[in-house]
Structures are given as C-alpha cells and as structure tokens.
Amino acid sequence: MPINLLTFAITRYRRDFRKYLMRAAERSGGSALHVLFREKVTFSWADAERVDYSTSANSYALGQIIRERLQPGPILGLLGLGGTRLDKPAGMLAANLHQDLSEVHWVYDVFDDFLYNAEGEDRVRRLIADALWRCRCERSIMLDPGLRGRYPSAVISTTPRISNSFRPSQWSTPRKWSVSDRSTAASISNGWTRLRPTT
Prior knowledge:
The protein is of the alpha/beta class.
C-alpha cells in the first residue's frame, strides 16, 4: 500500500524543499498534502496552492478534510513548524490538528535553526515551542549535522529524502503521549505560563 505524506510547514509550498518528497509520494501512488501555517492556513497539493482557511477554523473539520485527501493507506506526517509558538493562532490550530490526527505517524522535521538568533523572552518561548513540538512526534530528522547537540536522537539526512528508518514496515501504531511526555509538556507549559506578562 502506498504511503501518504502530510507536511505541516511555515514555508510556502513553492519555496519548500518538501515539495520534492510530495511529488515522489504522488508518483508512488500515494497522496500528499502541504499545510502552511501563517496568517492563514493554506492547503497545497499537485504542485499548487489550492485552498485557504482562517486560523480560527475548526480543527476537527480541517482534520476530516485532511483524512479524506490522504486515505486510504498509512500517513507519514512531517512536522516542520520549529519554533512556531503555541500561543499564536496558527500554532494553536496546528497543535489542535496534530492532536486530532492521532493516526498519523509524526516525524519532527528540523530543517533549520529555529531560534533565528532570538534573545531573551523570545528565545525562551521558541525553545519551549521547539521542545513541545519535538515531544509530540515519534521520531526526528534533521538536515544540518551542526544541530546534533540540540537533537541528539535525530536521524541526519543530507538529501531531501526520507530515511529507511521511516519505512511503514517498522511503524507500530502511532505514538500516544506517555506519562513522561505529559509531565514534560506540563512542566514546559508551566514554565511558559510564568513567562507571560502579568500586566
């Protein structure tokens, strides 16, 4: 059965190297969908941006649209949201969608240093968001070996292809949040709450 590919990204489809992975999935008989999270949410497939949604859209309804587009067959999700903050509308919608799409096999896709030389509170918020996204995924993959210190368990890919370690034959059921994940997320979220201004 072909693999379907779902990408959550902050890079527009035309500029995103993952479009080559999407083309490969489509050539192999699967379906592919690129979801851009910015001021609005944009769905792209078959080499074009197709539909825009508001960041206030219902995540359950969007999840159903994604399922209809990508089934039947297993779905591999590349989560390339990096330091996208979960206290912003796009980040909140992405987090809700991620939770709703529990059957997807998620891989945290690190394609850049998401800190962008941020300092102070902004840097801390980006680190927290990065940690939360990472602990929601089954595995991590990265392009830059220089980031190995921050992502020690990530698979390094020097070309835009999916490693053999992500073959469906090696997948079990999609990873659920464990108690330790929830504890980590709770402690991170509590730290995040303490960062918010008390005005």
